[in-house]
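Suppose you are handed a protein chain with no further information: no name, no annotation, nothing but its sequence. What can you learn? This example shows the usual starting point.
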Amino acid sequence: MKFTAAQIAGILNGTVDGDEDAAVSTLSKIEEGSKGSLTFLANPKYTHYIYTTQASITIVNNDFEATDDLSTTLIRVENAYKAFSQLLEYYNQVKMNKTGVEEPVFISKSAKYGDNVYLGAFSYIGENVKIGDDVKIYPNVYIGDNVTIDDKTIIFTGAKIYSETVIGKACVINSGVVLGADGFGFTPNENGEYIKVPQTGNVILEDFVDIGPGTTIDRATLGSTLIKRGVKLDNQIQIAHNVTIGENTVIAAQSGVAGSSKIGKNCIIGGQVGIAGHIIIGDNVKIQAQTGIGRNVKDNETLQGSPALNYGDFNKSYVYFKNLPKIMERFNIVEKKLDNE
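A reasonable first move is to predict its three-dimensional structure. Written in structure tokens, the prediction is:
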């Protein structure tokens, strides 16, 4: 699809400096701009590229002043970076504005769905499923029995939503996500064989939760595994049964949270972090990548290492650790001198 400079300026509440009829159909970096593409200039380090870019339209700040000739049409806005992000969001909405029910789709007779929904081909909608308005379910998605999906949620190709799961408003569930599979619950019998403990709970996602591709969130043994409002989970994360993650917490890829741990709100957790079971992590906690958490964590702590240390203590300790061979060499010399005295 094509947009003119005038149309884009209207979306962004900007003004056109150049050809209002200049049209674009793709996006580009400013240094790689070509005819028919749209780019932006926000970082002053890239200013020199605006004089050589072949992009048809460039979004700039209102205070930008050209010092040489330009071949690109400018759209002037208050904040070029925010405006470009706004435009990307608008573009995604237009691109993904699919509606209707494709064939073949299996929809249980007891399932209900709202207005302006999209149900992609080869999807399965189970018994007593409730789907709100403006929900987009892409092809090859499995929706189990008694699932509830609130308005404006998007579920991408190949996601699996097990029975009893509850998904809030405006959530994004990416490809390969599994919500509500059995938690890892086993108990040994008298012969040392592991017997499965039934997992009878569910998974609840509150509003505005984003789940990255390949992430799995297990149903609770009893009660709910709870992902609260605004949580953002990256790719390939494992969230075990009965975990709670607080509002607006973000977790990077390949992290794992063991059963019944509770994570507070506004936490930032790096990639490949491991959190042991039955741990309580406070609010506003920052955990560096590859950290192992085996104890409760108070509000506002910053941690690194495995097992985790206070971030400042870890860095001080690491200075000694990396110099440990030299330190031991000096220690051995001193020890020998003392032995000879």
